[in-house]
Amino acid sequence: MLHRQLTEDRCARRSDCPLMYTPKHFNETRLEVLHQLIHSHPLATLITLDGGSLCADHIPFELTAPSVAAPFGVLRGHVARANPLWRHAQAGDVLAVFKGPQAYISPAWYEEKSISGKVVPTFNYAVVHAHGPLRIIDDAQQLLALLERLTNRHEAVRSAPWQVSDAPSAFIEQIMTAIVGIEIPIAHLEGKWKISQNRSGPDQSSIAAGLSGDGNAAMAALMTGQ
After folding, report:
1. pLDDT for 178-203, tens place per residue?
2. Distances from the Cα of 49 to the Cαs of 65, 133, 134, 165, in angstroms?
3. CA-CA distances (angstroms) from residue 120 to 19, 22, 113, 197, 220?
4. Strand partners, 131
5. With 175 labelled, which of 50, 111, 211, 218 sits at a CA distance of 20 to 30 A?
6. What is the CA radius of gyration of the chain?
């Protein structure tokens, strides 16, 4: 118990203390890589603590570029005003989990399968954990600008993008009274890329080929750096 308490105390004082179990060969620390996963997979599971109960919500976020004030960037999104989540502001750090590609890995793709048979399945995945304080965006103009940025980003791929201004202004004003903006200045950022780095070169090639054959091009591309 004493060793555990000492470890927890050290973690509380160190901003670089890992909060997710991540063996060294799966650890991803490049900020641009972590940010790219968030940009590509913006729907986060946001975990908060309400009294003694854990709560989880699923919220799409935008991510700002790093700055002097926020070296890991800031996450911004919004929730329904009826959602008690926004009332957790100033109650300590929250955790946003962003999940990238994932895939089941068959033992049939391992070289050792035909040699000794001593192989078992696993799962590959890439995730980013973002920790930080939850703050409220209560300025109407800032909230409107956030809604416009989120909409413009996700509508950009369409030939005729919908814009917030396409809706009647009175309707948008009504909608805005029913939502609350939130932001998380990221204080601690962790990435785990479990993509078979602990396997041999031939195994990695075989796994990537197997994933491509199964139609999981995203994980195959992540493994091969494409």
Report:
1. 999 999 999 999 999 999 999 999 99
2. 27, 12, 11, 36
3. 27, 20, 9, 16, 19
4. 95, 188
5. 50
6. 21
